[in-house]
Write a structure and sequence with these properties.
Blueprint (H helix, E strand, L loop, with lengths): L3 E6 L5 E5 L10 H6 L6 E6 L14 H14 L6 E5 L1 H12 L6 E5 L7 H13 L2 E2 L2 H7 L8 H8 L3 E3 L5 E3 L3 H10 L14 E5 L8 H7 L5 E4 L6 H4 L1 H13 L4
Parallel strand pairs: 2-3, 2-4, 4-5, 5-9, 9-10
Antiparallel strand pairs: 1-3, 6-8, 7-8
């Protein structure tokens, strides 16, 4: 499946592909692309399968998502770009590197979902199975358990176009809830082994949130080019914006990586 894409920044710059998290959309990268990364890169972001304006049909396996990504960059005529993946997007980067290392120049994985417990996967899948509709965008933001202290106004601005307002005045996220549930199920399965990381890769994570465990860091760190810790919680592009945007820039712009 070719995914819906949006671009910002320098059209003649090196391509930087950005992959959003579960339930997200391409607009999650608009601010950082316009504010920072687009000064150096041709920034391209997708709506993943089951999200936004891309197709919503199954299967919703991680393998399928990787194939969608490869098909889409092929259609764009891009061979070996740099990558940024957030949360689910970070897990997809690990899957992409394991399957198609020749398609990755460098990768920054931000708060990647390496693997979660079956209990947490069930909890989040049930939340999504029963959810998807909120009284307002403000209510959606207030329901998030992973953002910490953020600029709420800017966060809501990033969500514009990703929600629809129903006749009852409530807002619905433009996602396929069946796909979201399936993604959380996949999170309980092991990620590719650390030794499959064969391209320069930076992992950035927020220890306070605890998604990346000490055991996971210990296993993957010997195979990574860099590990960066930031304050805040899981939504690092909001709760630790400056630290995250700067770390990605420094990693991708350092010669020799």
């Amino acid at each position: 499946m070719q995914l819906r894409t949006t671009e910002w920044g320098n059209p003649s710059g090196p391509p930087l592909i950005c992959v959003h998290g579960v339930g997200g959309h391409h607009g999650n990268f608009q601010h950082v692309a316009e504010d920072r990364w687009g000064k150096h890169f041709r920034v391209i972001a997708f709506d993943l399968r089951g999200h936004g304006d891309s197709g919503w049909g199954p299967p919703w396996t991680h393998a399928t998502y990787v194939e969608d990504i490869v098909e889409t960059i092929d259609a764009l005529g891009i061979d070996r770009p740099d990558w940024v993946g957030v949360s689910f997007g970070g897990r997809l980067m690990l899957e992409l590197i394991a399957r198609y290392p020749e398609r990755v120049r460098r990768a920054a994985v931000l708060e990647p979902v390496i693997q979660i417990t079956p209990e947490l996967a069930m909890h989040r899948a049930e939340q999504e199975r029963l959810g998807g509709v909120w009284d307002s965008l403000e209510a959606f933001v207030a329901s998030r358990e992973n953002t910490g202290d953020i600029d709420t106004e800017r966060y809501i601005a990033d969500l514009q176009g990703h929600f629809e307002t129903g006749e009852d005045g409530r807002v619905r996220r433009r996602t396929c809830q069946s796909a979201i549930v399936s993604i959380f199920s996949e999170f309980a399965a092991p990620a590719p082994p650390p030794e499959t990381i064969t391209v320069p890769t930076m992992m950035l994570y927020a220890p306070a949130f605890g998604l990346v465990t000490p055991e996971q860091r210990k296993a993957y760190e010997p195979h990574l080019a860099q590990v960066v810790e930031v304050p805040g919680l899981h939504a690092v592009l909001t709760s630790a914006y400056e630290e995250t945007a700067s770390a990605v820039e420094k990693f991708l712009l350092t010669p020799g990586r």
